[in-house]
Amino acid sequence: MEQVIGVPRGLDYYLFYPFWQHFLASLGLGTVVSPPTNKAIVDLGATHAVDGCCLPLKVYLGHVLTLAEQGITAFFVPRIVGIARREYICPYFLGLPDFISHYLPRKGTEVISPVVDFRRGELAAAKELIRFGARYVPWPEAARAYYSAWLAFRSWRQRQITAVAPERLTVLVLGHRYLVDDSFLNQGVMGRLHQAGAQAITSYQLPEAFLSKGAKRLGKRMFWTSGRQSLGALEECLGKVDGVITLAAFACGTDSLVTDLIQRRARQAGVPNLLLYVDEQTGEAGIGTRLEAFVDMLVRSKQR
After folding, report:
1. What's the predicted TM-score (pTM) here?
2. Which of 81, 152, 197, 276 is surrounded by the most beta carbons within 10 Å?
């Protein structure tokens, strides 16, 4: 009988799910993804999480507990150390399986947590994931599953690349992908921009070489991948976009530094910028009002 595992719709889901979906299916593992983020999921995670957790971590816990309420007993929670060579990701990703295990019954549940570590290069990371796959299928089959999933993931990533349209009102939206892509957490920022007739560009829609080139202009090397991508996108898009919006999660340590650097650089270049902090108490009306005023300002500026 095919084992079914739950996949929380948060954090790494927005970074790698096309890869995990293909890889796990090739290993003979069925997956059930939690519903899109909603108020019930946010409240569930916020109620159970310890004090000091950032919003995305609380929401991730809410997704796990929602799956548990649906009868899921196995949860896919990878232990992510780094997703790029010589760079780190948020430390919470490293301890995520341990964090989640604390909130699940010790008996009758399983947390499946392969190690993802690209700091030493793609080959070392591939070997680790193939070793994980060999727990379910023979090694050669696990290797084929990995490379097939990796090709599918690269194709998905390539399809997202978008060119900046200089003739349109263009806004660069920066922040962690699990904030930018979760319309409930960001109160529909991307949709609101599209409705206003603006082109919304994110760092995840730009080629990696483009981001790395921009990051080289920084005075010091950025060791956090998300920070390098955001700052690299900003450097390369200055002069090509009309404004910058930064989405940040309350109580996020990396955001507290990166958002300040983004604001300083945008002001230095004379590009209008808007910082939007979100937490479990964020209201749609507040963000909508600020966003509408910001877009109106950009429209008047572009018409001059």
Report:
1. 0.90
2. 276
Would you list the domain boundaries of the chain?
A: 3-159, 170-303
pLDDT digits (tens, 9 = 90+) for 46-55: 999 887 788 8
Beta-carbon contacts of residue 85 (< 8 Å; ≥ 6 apart): 118, 119, 120, 121
Q: Which CATH number describes the domain made up of 170-303?
A: 3.40.50.11900
**162-205, pLDDT tens digit by residue?**
877 777 888 999 999 999 999 998 888 898 888 888 888 898 88
Name which CATH class applies to 3-159: alpha beta
